[in-house]
Amino acid sequence: ETQHKWWKEAAVYQIYPASFKDSNGDGWGDLAGITSKLDYIKGLGVDVIWICPFYDSPQQDMGYDIADYEKVWPRYGTNADCFELISKAHALGIKVVVDLVINHCSADHVWFQESRSSQTSPKRDWFIWRPPKGYDAAGKPIPPNNWRSFFGGSAWEFDDHTQEFYLRLFASRQPDFNWELKEVRDAIYETAVGFWIDHGVDGFRIDVASMYSKVAGLPDAPVEEPGNPFQNGGAYFINGPRIHEFHKEMHKYMVSRVSDGRELLTVGEIGFGDERNFKEYTSAKEREIGMLFNFKHVSVGEGEFKYNLHPYSLKDFKLAVAESFLFVNKTDCWSTIYIENHDQPRSVTRFGDDSPEWRTVSAKLLALLEISLTGTLFVYQGQELGQINFKSTDPKDYEDIEVQGNYEMVKKEFGENSPQMKKFKQALPVISRDHARTPFAWTRDAPHAGFTTADTPWFGLNSTFKDGINAQDELNDPNSVVHFWKKALQVRKQHKDILVYGYDFEFSDLDHDQLFAFTKKSDGKTLFVALNFSGHDLKFNVPHSASQYTPIFGNYGSIPEPSVPLRPWEGRLYYVE
Ligand code: ISL
């Protein structure tokens, strides 16, 4: 049975430090900037902040390439700034979760420097080194297998110094740790986990949590994308043979390290898997991770190669959304509800309608969907404003290494004028990670929306701050998306028994292509939710027709009887008695 826990009913606000608030005018957000905005965050009614990596890093992958787990990157401030942020947040009753990036580190980390110094270095096996498979006609070394990096090209990097390749599933300078060695795991726990527990954090968002364990022998991946020398090797490292053993071990370490009895929030970036895996990761009795991020719903329409988009139906989306939490039903497992993060585009553009006519109401509709679902709710900075994507198909307008790396790969493998390139460019304004990474818009009237006083921010703002998508204008407008989110978070708390913890979820009209409607239960109560994913009026079948419907909440002010058609992008929550 589902137990109530603080971290299940908390609302978490995710902060991307580079793009939240710059306090010293160098064009980058920083920790003191976050501290200066704690009142704004508190005002939203969230309980926790998760701060993306702020550790020392050469920033090849925006801080997910960590060179020192125990030191703040100087542009983000000092360790003292970080400890101050934690204590000021705590004083306001806000808990703090940090990112735990331990599938890989940066090639600048001293451990990797030692490892690459020679083939006989005592730390050689701390990373995954292999000799070339052979040499091509031009004498170039051939990678040990055909795995593709998430950022394009081979997942292997050749190191001239020792004439071997190291595995790096992500960027060229993000070497994967060799988790097979106990010595490596202990060293990771001690620094990346222990140091931050000692400094008072309330939990961890665990990066790439499903990929630490690679299948022995590192076999070639089957060819799913003909013509490309590099293939998706996920079957050999996602949810690998020892992954659950590793999480059990790390969980034990965390529990033993906490000295004051606080219970940590842990959320694993699991991405893809089957029900058996989701349950094993998150079941309380397995003692691994508190909850997980499933990627199914945010990936609908993406290809085996992410940027190869294809059409999908609302039914595909509904089923994918449900996969996030259905496995939790009346068990001791748990999951998350989210629709944006720093790796995803803006949800209004992707799943709502970002035209001036429907932006506000469709952003509110997505909020209604999220507060109605079972799991811990995560809101990403700017989502509470109904931020939208910027519209560019030119790779030059994008910063992200994932865009740049895959652009180079498509160019090299297929050419600048190929149909593959055309598809790639069309995908950019839809799904690039950069849409989430434009600096936060605080006000309309200051340069760069008040994010920085520098002439040039590290990444340009979305120009929509001039059209009212900024915190100040929205706080001044009672009908804005931000005010709706505040209310929505209160409603979720008020009705948490059913909204947060409800069970026996059931779709109505699953095949319907505009209607997202469902029923779920809690002890003694039944909830019915109807959401119109279209820009026109929608009449729908009312289930439980003999029953009494009591309105709870909606995005059009007054809430009529369910027999009244839904207005464009209208959503309604009712109790059914
Ligand atoms: O972003 C993705 C899909 O768009 C994923 O492939 C993503 O790279 C993967 O989920 C892992 O993400 C995490 O680790 C990466 C980092 O770039 C991401 O920002 C982070 O969330 C490497 O550390």
UniProtKB/TrEMBL annotation:
Keywords, comma-separated and alphabetical: Glycosidase, Hydrolase, Maltose metabolism
Listed Gene3D superfamilies: Glycosidases, Golgi alpha-mannosidase II, Oligo-1,6-glucosidase, Domain 2
Flavoprotein among keywords: no
MF annotations from Gene Ontology: alpha-amylase activity; glucan 1,4-alpha-maltotriohydrolase activity; oligo-1,6-glucosidase activity; sucrose alpha-glucosidase activity
GO biological process: maltose catabolic process; sucrose catabolic process
Domain (Glycosyl hydrolase family 13 catalytic): residue spans on this chain: 14-437
Protein family membership: Belongs to the glycosyl hydrolase 13 family.
Name the record gives this protein: LAMI_0F07580g1_1
Source species: Lachancea mirantina
